[in-house]
Write a structure and sequence with these properties.
Layout: H1 14-34, H2 64-69, H3 71-74, H4 97-109, H5 120-136, E1 155-159, H6 162-181, H7 198-204, E2 205-210, H8 215-223, E3 227-231, H9 241-253, E4 257-264, H10 276-285, E5 289-293, E6 318-322, H11 323-326, E7 334-338, H12 341-348, H13 381-416, E8 420-423, E9 431-436, H14 440-452, E10 459-463, E11 466-472, H15 480-504, H16 512-525, H17 537-553, H18 555-562, H19 574-586, H20 588-599, H21 605-624, H22 627-631
Helix pairs in contact: 4-13, 5-13, 6-8, 6-12, 13-15, 14-15, 15-16, 16-17, 16-21, 17-21
This protein binds pyridoxal-5'-phosphate.
Pyridoxal-5'-phosphate binds next to helix 6.
Cofactor: pyridoxal 5'-phosphate
Keywords: Decarboxylase, Lyase, Pyridoxal phosphate
Protein name: Tyrosine decarboxylase
C-alpha cells in the first residue's frame, strides 16, 4: 500500500476564498449599481472571444487575481445586460439579491439530493417551497403535497426550465395514454393477428397545442416522437373550444387518439391566454391531459385582481411557471406541478416504483429524481425560499403590479399614436406587442434601428403573419422614465423610417394612411422643442395629442388627407387641396374660432397660447406643404 503521498495543495485556500469572495461580492454590487452606465447589448461579432482567450486550457493554474483582472475583457464585453433599465427584450431573466445569496449557500453546500436519504433537506425544502407557491399563487389544492393536503395525489417539482417541464408532462401523458389504451387493444402476444404492439399504440396518439405556444412544445413532441397539431388561435391568440373540438373529431375519425393538449397563459409572442373554462371541459370529455404553460405570466396569479385568469384550472393535469422569469429568482427554477404523481412516476420511475419504496408520505417522499431526466439534484429550492422570505408575497405582488402598470402606460402611448397598432390579447401582463401600421418591413426596420445603437433592446416576433415588436418590462425597478425613454426612441426611429419609406412607397395606396398619420405627427410635434412656456410642455403635449385625435376627425383635415391619394403630396388631388387651402385663407378667424370652441378645453391662458401656437403652426405647415400652395406662392401671402 503506497504511503507518504504528497499532500494535495488546492489552488485556492479557504482564506483566499474569503478574500476573493468579498471581492466578487463587491464587484457584483458595483456592477449592478452601475449597469445602466453600460449599453444593454454588446456590439461584439460572432467568434470575438476566440481572439481574446487562449484556445488551449492553461497547463498550470493561474492566480484568481489574474482571472478577476480580465473579467471585464472576457465576460462583460460580450454580455447582454438583462437587468439594464433599457433592456425590454424577451422576458425578464429573474434575479435579486436574496436569490444570488441563496444560490451561494447551495453552491457552498454542494449536496446531491437525488434521494431523500442522500440529502433530506433537498427533497423536503423543495416540497415545502412548491406548496408555498401553489398556495400563494392560488392554484388548485390537488397539486399540493400530502403534507399540506392529505387528500392530494399531486406533486410539485422544481425543474430547470419550462421546456423540460413541458417535455416531461407530454411524456407522462403519453405513458398514461398507452396504459389506458392497453385494455382496449390486446397485445401481439395475446392476439398475434389483431394485437397491437406498444409502438402501434404510440403511433395512434396525437397531441395538440395552441399555435401561439413556445417552440419548446413542438420540440418536446419531436423528442418524444409524438405527432402534434398546432391549433389555430383566434385574433387574440386564443384557441376556441370549437377549434379544439373539431380537430379532435376529425382526428378520431381517422383512427387517431388525442391524448394531450398544451394550453397557454401568457404566450411568448403577445401574452395571449387561453380560456381554460372553454378548453377544459372538452379535454375532460375526451380524457385529454390538459397542460398549461404559464412560464412567464403564471407569477401574476399571486395578485387577487388577476384571479380570473386562473378560472378553469380545475381541469388542468399539469402546469409550469418559471420563477426565473417573473419572480426575481435566478436560473434555474421552473415550478412544475402534476395532479396525479403516480402517472408521472409510472413513466419515469421504472418498473419498481409501484411495488416498493414510494409510499409517500407514510414512508418517505418520492425521490424527486423520478420526475425528470437527471439523477443528481442540487438544492435548487433554497434560493427561491430566500426570495419568498425576503420579499414576502406582498413584495412579489408589488413587483408584478409595477410591471403591469408600466405596460399599461406604454400601451397608452401606442394607442395614442395613430401610426402604430397594438397586437395580441386583451391583458398584457408586463409585455406590450405593437407594430407600425403597414408593411412588415417597416416594423422590422424599426426593430433593427432600435437595436442598432445598442442603447436599448427589444426583439421582434410574429403574430398572425404580422411582424410585431415586443416591449417587455424586465428590470426589477423599472419606472416611468424608462418607459418614456423607450417611447421617445421608438417615436424618433419610426419618424425616420416613415420618412425614408415615403420615398420608397411613393405610389403605394396601401401605405397611404400610415403616411398621412406620419405627416400629422410631424405637423403637430415639430413645434414642441420651442414653445414659449417650457414648463407647460407636458400639458401642451397632452393637449396636442388630443388635438391630433380630434383633428383627425375634422372634415377639413380629411379633405387634406384625400389629397394624399398615392402616398405623397405631389401625386395628390389638387382640387381637394385647393378647396381646403381656400377655406383657410378665406376664413382665418373661423379657424381660430373653431379651434377655441371645439378643441381647446382649458382655462389656462399660457397653455391656451402654446396650444394655439401649435394649432396655427400646424395649419400653416399643412398649407405651406401643399402642392397648390407651392405653385401659388408668388400669387398669395401664406399668412393664415
Ligand atoms: C410561454 C413560454 N413557455 C416556455 C418557454 C421556454 O422557457 P425555458 O427557457 O424555461 O425553457 C418560454 C420562454 O420564454 C415561454 O415564454
Amino acid at each position: 500500500m503506497p504511503r507518504g503521498l504528497p499532500e494535495v495543495v488546492p489552488p485556492m485556500s479557504s482564506d483566499q476564498f474569503r478574500k476573493y469572495g468579498y471581492k466578487v461580492v463587491d464587484w457584483a454590487v458595483e456592477f449592478m449599481n452601475t449597469v445602466n452606465n453600460r449599453n444593454p447589448t454588446s456590439d461584439v461579432k460572432p467568434g470575438w472571444l476566440w481572439k481574446v482567450v487562449p484556445t488551449q486550457a492553461p497547463e498550470n493554474g493561474e492566480s484568481f487575481e489574474s482571472i478577476l483582472n480580465d473579467l471585464e475583457k472576457v465576460v462583460c464585453h460580450g454580455m447582454a445586460h438583462w437587468q439594464h433599465r433599457l433592456f425590454f427584450a424577451y422576458f425578464p431573466a429573474g434575479n435579486s439579491w436574496p436569490s444570488i445569496l441563496g444560490d451561494i449557500f447551495s453552491n457552498a453546500m454542494a449536496a446531491n439530493g437525488q434521494t431523500w436519504y442522500s440529502c433530506p433537506v433537498s427533497t423536503e425544502l423543495e416540497n415545502i417551497v412548491m406548496d408555498w407557491c401553489c398556495k400563494f399563487l392560488g392554484l388548485p389544492a390537488f397539486f399540493l403535497s400530502t403534507y399540506s393536503e392529505p387528500r392530494s395525489h399531486g406533486q410539485g417539482i422544481l425543474q430547470c426550465s419550462a421546456s423540460e417541464a413541458i417535455f416531461y408532462s407530454m411524456i407522462w401523458a403519453r405513458e398514461d395514454a398507452v396504459r389506458q389504451l392497453r385494455p382496449r387493444f390486446p397485445s401481439k402476444k395475446d392476439d398475434p393477428v389483431n394485437g397491437k404492439t406498444r409502438a402501434d399504440l404510440l403511433n395512434m396518439l396525437v397531441a395538440y397545442c395552441n399555435n401561439e405556444c413556445h417552440c419548446c412544445v413542438e420540440r418536446a413532441a419531436m423528442m418524444g416522437c409524438i405527432r402534434i397539431r398546432k391549433l389555430k388561435a383566434d385574433k387574440k391568440g386564443v384557441v376556441r373550444s370549437t377549434t379544439l373540438l373539431n380537430t379532435i373529431e376529425e382526428d378520431m375519425a381517422k383512427g387517431l387518439i388525442p391524448f394531450f393538449h398544451c394550453a397557454i397563459i401568457g404566450s411568448t409572442g403577445v401574452t395571449s391566454y387561453d380560456d381554460l373554462m372553454e378548453v377544459g371541459p372538452v379535454c375532460q370529455k375526451y380524457h385529454i391531459w390538459l397542460h398549461v404553460d404559464a412560464a412567464y405570466a403564471g407569477s401574476a396569479f399571486c395578485c387577487p385582481e388577476l384571479a380570473y385568469l386562473k378560472q378553469g384550472y380545475e381541469y388542468v393535469w399539469s402546469t409550469n411557471i418559471n420563477t426565473n422569469k417573473w419572480m426575481m429568482c435566478n436560473f434555474e427554477a421552473s415550478l412544475h406541478w402534476v395532479r396525479y404523481r403516480t402517472k408521472a412516476l409510472a413513466a419515469f420511475a421504472g418498473p419498481k416504483w409501484e411495488s416498493t419504496t414510494y409510499q409517500y408520505p407514510n414512508n418517505v417522499p418520492p425521490d424527486l429524481k423520478h420526475y425528470g431526466v437527471a439523477s443528481s439534484r442540487r438544492l435548487r429550492a433554497y434560493k427561491l425560499y430566500c426570495v419568498i422570505r425576503n420579499y414576502g408575497v406582498e413584495g412579489i405582488r408589488r413587483y408584478i403590479r409595477n410591471h403591469v402598470s408600466l405596460a399599461r402606460l406604454f400601451e397608452a402611448y401606442v394607442e395614442r399614436d395613430p401610426r402604430f397598432e397594438l397586437c395580441g390579447g386583451s391583458f398584457r401582463f408586463g409585455l406590450v406587442t405593437f407594430r407600425l401600421k403597414g408593411y412588415n418591413s417597416l416594423t422590422q426596420k424599426l426593430n433593427d434601428a432600435i437595436n442598432a445603437s445598442h442603447k436599448i433592446h427589444m426583439v421582434p416576433s410574429h403574430f398572425h403573419d404580422k411582424v410585431v415588436i415586443r416591449f417587455a418590462l424586465c428590470a426589477e425597478y423599472a419606472n416611468e422614465r424608462d418607459v418614456d425613454d423607450a417611447w421617445n426612441a421608438i417615436d424618433h426611429h419610426a419618424t425616420e423610417i416613415l420618412h425614408e419609406a415615403q420615398e420608397e412607397f411613393k405610389n403605394d395606396r396601401a401605405m397611404r394612411d400610415t403616411f398621412v398619420q406620419q405627416r400629422k405627427h410631424d405637423t403637430y410635434f415639430d413645434y414642441f422643442p420651442h414653445p414659449d412656456h417650457a414648463e407647460k410642455l407636458a400639458e401642451a403635449q397632452h393637449v396636442a395629442k388630443n388635438l391630433a385625435k380630434s383633428l383627425a376627425e375634422d372634415a377639413l383635415i380629411k379633405d387634406a388627407d384625400n389629397t394624399a391619394v398615392d402616398g405623397s403630396w405631389g401625386n395628390g388631388d389638387p382640387d381637394a387641396f385647393a378647396s381646403y387651402d381656400k377655406k383657410l385663407r378665406d376664413n382665418p378667424e373661423m379657424v381660430r374660432f373653431n379651434f377655441d370652441e371645439d378643441y381647446l378645453h382649458t382655462d389656462d391662458p399660457q397653455l391656451y397660447k402654446v396650444a394655439s401656437m401649435l394649432h396655427l403652426a400646424m395649419l400653416q405647415s399643412t398649407v405651406a406643404n401643399s402642392p397648390e400652395s407651392k405653385k401659388s406662392k408668388s400669387r398669395h401671402s401664406t399668412d393664415v
